[in-house]
From TrEMBL:
Name of the protein this chain belongs to: Porphobilinogen deaminase
GO molecular function: hydroxymethylbilane synthase activity
Organism encoding this protein: Microbulbifer epialgicus
Reactions that this protein is recorded to catalyse: 4 porphobilinogen + H2O = hydroxymethylbilane + 4 NH4(+)
NCBIfam families per record: hemC
Length: 305
C-alpha cells in the first residue's frame, strides 16, 4: 500500500506550528495528492517554554513526546528547530531531511536602541543563553545580562513591559513569525557566533524508504553539509543549547569554513578556533575543530558549567 497520508507531530507554540505548516505546505506542493495532517501535542506543564527545562533521558520532554507519537504510529514525522535537536535518536527514528536555512544570525531587539553598540553603560540585556551571554559580556563587560525565558511572544512581552533595555533572539524565529519590524539590527557572526544549527529546520521520521522518498524534495544539501560540521563540533563537546558554545559553518565552493567558540559565562575567557576542509566531510571537520578548542582549554570551561 503506497503512503497516502502523512501526519506531522508538532508542539503548539507559534514557532513550532509555523515550522510544521511550512513542511506541510512544501510537501503538499511536491505531492498534490498526498493528504497531510498536523497532530498538535500539548506537553505536560511546561508548554510555554521554548527550551524544555525538564529533561527525560537527556532529552527535552517535547522531543520525547513527539518521538513517542512516531514510535507508537500516531504520527509519521516531526519538525524540529535544528539547534534544539539532540544528537542521538531512539531506535527506529532518524533525521533524514534538513531544510534550507533561514538567516542564522541573532537579532538585536529593543524599544529604545537601534543597535548593540548604542546600548548605554550598564544596560540590561535579556537572554538565558550562555552562548549569547559570554560573547556579549566579552565585548561589553558593563552590561547586565538578565534571565529571559519563554517562547518568542513571551520574551517580546517582557521586553515591552520594560524589564529589559534590549533582548537577543534568533532572527529566524522573528522572521518566520512575520515580526521582521521587531529586529532593530542583526548581530554579525563576528560579534555573536550563532548556535550550531540555528535557523535551520529538520524532519525526524521513522525509518521507511517510501516516506523518505516523499520527503526528499524538502532536503537542502548545502544546509545539511554546513550542519554536519556544526553538529559534529557540538557533539564532540557534549553540548546542547544550554552550554556556551557557538559554531557556524559557511560554504566556500567545495569547501567548508567552520568557526567555533567556547566561552566562560562571565565573558572573561573566550576561546575561538576556525578551520577549513572539504564540504563532503563536515563531520570530520567539526570533530577536528572541537579537538582544537579542547586543546586550547575549552574542557575546563565546560566542566565548570
Ligand atoms: N532555543 C529556542 C529556539 N529554538 C529555535 C529558535 C528559533 C530560531 C531557530 O530556528 O534557530 C529559538 C528561539 C531563539 O533562540 O530566539
Amino acid at each position: 500500500m503506497p503512503i497516502t497520508l502523512i501526519r506531522i507531530a508538532t508542539r503548539e507554540s507559534a514557532l513550532a506550528l509555523w515550522q510544521a505548516n511550512y513542511v506541510k505546505d512544501r510537501l503538499q506542493q511536491a505531492h498534490p495528492n498526498l493528504q497531510i495532517e498536523l497532530l498538535p501535542m500539548t506537553s505536560r506543564g511546561d508548554r510555554v517554554l521554548d527550551i524544555p527545562l525538564t529533561k527525560v533521558g537527556g532529552k527535552g520532554l517535547f522531543v520525547k513526546e513527539l518521538e513517542m507519537a512516531m514510535l507508537e504510529g500516531r504520527a509519521d514525522i516531526a519538525v524540529h528547530s535544528m539547534k534544539d535537536v539532540p544528537m542521538e535518536f531512539p531506535e527506529g527514528l532518524h533525521l533524514p531531511i534538513i531544510c534550507e536555512r533561514e538567516d542564522p544570525r541573532d537579532a538585536f531587539v529593543s524599544n529604545h536602541y537601534a543597535s548593540f553598540d548604542e546600548l548605554p553603560q550598564g544596560a540590561v540585556v535579556g537572554t538565558s543563553s550562555l552562548r549569547r551571554q559570554c560573547q556579549l559580556l566579552a565585548r561589553r563587560p558593563d552590561l547586565q545580562v538578565k534571565f529571559l525565558r519563554g517562547n518568542v511572544n513571551t520574551r517580546l512581552a517582557k521586553l515591552d513591559a520594560g524589564e529589559y533595555d534590549a533582548i537577543i533572539l534568533a532572527a529566524a524565529g522573528l522572521l518566520r513569525l512575520e515580526m521582521r519590524e521587531r529586529i532593530r539590527s542583526f548581530l554579525s557572526t563576528n560579534v555573536l557566533l550563532p548556535a550550531g544549527g540555528q535557523g535551520a529546520v529538520g524532519i525526524e521520521a521513522r525509518h521507511d524508504s517510501e516516506l523518505e522518498a516523499l520527503l526528499t524534495p524538502l532536503h537542502c544539501a548545502e544546509t545539511a553539509a554546513r550542519l554536519s560540521a556544526e553538529r559534529a563540533l557540538v557533539k564532540r563537546l557534549n553540548g546542547g543549547c544550554q552550554v556556551p558554545i557557538g559554531c557556524y559553518a559557511e560554504l566556500e565552493g567545495d569547501s567548508l569554513w567552520l568557526r567555533g567558540l567556547v566561552g566562560s559565562p562571565d565573558g572573561k575567557t573566550l576561546i575561538h578556533a576556525e578551520c577549513r576542509g572539504p564540504a563532503d566531510n563536515g563531520e570530520a571537520l567539526g570533530t577536528q575543530l572541537a579537538e582544537q578548542l579542547l586543546a586550547d582549554g575549552a574542557g575546563k570551561i565546560l566542566e565548570a558549567i
